[in-house]
């Protein structure tokens, strides 16, 4: 397992990239995410979607929620040093997410089969579970990015 600088400060995770539209501090839509790694695997934390993420007034947009699910699922894997992309993402909305509502999250690897890992992300509000997401993530070689003309600005993000 990698010992990421992100995991050495009381298990807290910091944004993986300044310009990531979900977690990056340069993003005008940066989501308030406070993610921590309580143990060897998995992530817990808090998430708040606000008025920048609404679909109808007062309710978070389902696409914004899905992006947050993808971000959290990805964080579970990158902190383990896994180089991956998301191949498929399903998001089940059990109840509306209100803008400004503080949610707790937990995420973990549900299964690993060959290059495929399924990561589950649960989001809950004060009244209980609001979202369950499942990301099917596929391990990829470094060439997945280098053949696209991308270099260390991407490949260095994995396994820090
Ligand atoms: C822009 C990339 C960013 C990546 C990560 C980002 C940041 C990393 C750093 C820190 C991150 C911290 C937090 C993370 C934050 C966000 C995470 C975002 C992650 C993303 O958002 S990333 C962008 C969107 N994502 C893509 O850009 C993928 C496009 N796509 C492809 O690049 C190929 O499609 C690929 C590589 C997926 C597969 O291609 P391939 O040729 O390598 O392999 P192949 O097709 O053989 O599939 C192998 C096995 O997966 C099964 N399989 C494949 N696809 C499936 C599907 N859809 N449903 C069910 N099963 C599927 C096959 O059935 C086979 O299964 P089996 O082995 O059992 O036969």
Order of helices and strands: HEEEEEHEEEEHH
- Could you say which overall geometry the principal axes of the C-alpha atoms support? globular
Bound molecules: ligand 3IX
**How would you classify the helix and strand content by structural class?**
alpha+beta
Subcellular location: Cell projection, Ruffle membrane; Cytoplasm; Membrane
Keywords: Apoptosis, Cell membrane, Cell projection, Cytoplasm, Fatty acid metabolism, Hydrolase, Lipid metabolism, Membrane, Transit peptide
Protein name: Acyl-coenzyme A thioesterase THEM4
Catalytic activity: tetradecanoyl-CoA + H2O = tetradecanoate + CoA + H(+); dodecanoyl-CoA + H2O = dodecanoate + CoA + H(+); octanoyl-CoA + H2O = octanoate + CoA + H(+); decanoyl-CoA + H2O = decanoate + CoA + H(+)
Describe this structure in words.
18% of the residues lie in helices and 39% in strands. The chain has 160 residues and is an alpha+beta fold. It has a single domain, classed as Roll (Thiol Ester Dehydrase, Chain A), CATH 3.10.129.10. The protein has a seven-stranded antiparallel sheet with strand order 1-2-3-7-8-9-6. It has a two-stranded antiparallel ribbon with strand order 4-5. The site of ligand 3IX has 18 residues, from helix 2, strand 6 and strand 9. Its EC number is 3.1.2.2.
How are the elements arranged and paired?
Elements lengths: L4 H4 L3 E2 L18 E5 L6 E6 L5 E3 L2 E2 L1 H17 L5 E10 L8 E12 L2 E10 L2 E12 L3 H4 L5 H4 L5
Antiparallel strand pairs: 1-2, 2-3, 3-7, 4-5, 6-9, 7-8, 8-9
